[in-house]
Please model this.
Amino acid sequence: MRRTFAVRFAAAVVGTLAFAVGAQQAPPVDYGDLIILYRDANGVPNLTPEGMFPSVDPEGNPIMVEGGLCQQPIYFADDLCPLECAVPSVPPGADVVDVDQTTCAVVVGCEACTQEVDFGRINEARSSDEVFDSQLQDVVVNLATSDCVVTLDPAGRMVTGTVDATAPDGYTTSAIDSPLQNLAIYRQLLQTGDIGVTLPQEASILDTAARGLGAASDKSGEVNVDLVAYLNMIMGLSDPATTTILDPKICIEVREEVQGTVQLVTKCFLNYGAYVYSRVDNFTALPAPPYIPEEDPTPGWFEYLVVLDSEVPTFTIAQGPITTAVFADAAFDGGNIGAFAQASDDTRATIDFMHNWPVPNPDVYATAVPCEPLDAITYDVSISEQSGLQVPKNYVSGTQREFVVTVANGGPDPATGTVTVTAVLGTGGVVPGSPWTFGFTELADGQSASFTQLFAVTASGTTITWTATAYAPYDVVPSNNTVTATSTIKGSGGGNRP
Model:
């Protein structure tokens, strides 16, 4: 059986009172401002009515100013929170914290009545695009080079396998568990619906995204609607300029303080309206494929540690439905962003349960995760952006110099292919000898091959643009196969040699 992979990467507010006309784009998100809000079914904040409200000018004279369109924080009772801080919501349905309708800031003395969203380790969402791209590439490489058919564990995480002659079953398996990698999966799927390799047959795009978010969150935390909405803002997914699979976005104008000025800002939210989730259906399909119990695999079953006698204490390994062990058979069926948040939190809760009640010494006592071998050659050939193509930074016209190109194989199989280097002058034409092609054969997993080439060209006052590209027929990640570099050509006079 031969696999073909098409890898495709895309990538308490109190302040100075002033007034502005017109809506601005939403300001950068500050973690200190991320409090739980009164939201509608789409996760969009319910706003207070717009109108004219009493205030005072800088001299202390009473005036009427435009106000309203304020977000409404959910009221949380606390020893430091006065009861009078709770007011009816608009529309009715909840107690919210009183806010000043001219500034939309929480009324002074009521700050303790709000509650911040607990992000925990998901604050890694503030990582750069480069970090997410790197993490996603690691995911793609692991999935594409798996020696086993990619499966899903009881929480819905993707599981890869590696042939290992020293392992009890001749192979090892590993779930994608890294918080950053799972955030990268979530981000990429919402942007494009595609992480670069085919998802397991049982994994839909949005279900996989929800599971990625759940796997990225704190095991003992909670994924809720506010966390999802704020996370999308932090990651830039709800930015009007960002294209997602949940477009068109839902956008509103909100009055809030931005750098000391109260103004209208436009805030947008991803539209999860088409998403539906059933806890029973989800976990009946996990793990995929079923493998518990070994003699008669039953969909929706897994195994875990249970206490037989807490006084002795004694334990045993139990096998049974995920929904019973983790959720006490409580059902959930719903849609929209609330269901998406619940799907993510169910993944988190299942991972938390598995970590708290693991099968001890799994190589001995756990049922082996199945591995369906793949009859395919796979490897990841790459050229390093930092050191893969070494050329002179400055080159003296007419002299003989050299460049070095290095290709590496990330395995798992040996790689055979070529690396080609071209050198193009800024004034047109090429360096004599360009392009150069070098071959490598049976390059082992974890090994690299370097090629050195002399060159000379007579030209001055221009540049050389170098491009190195590696090719191997079973390379699963061609996106890391090309690098470029530049040399500046100096005149032949003395003192210009680097």
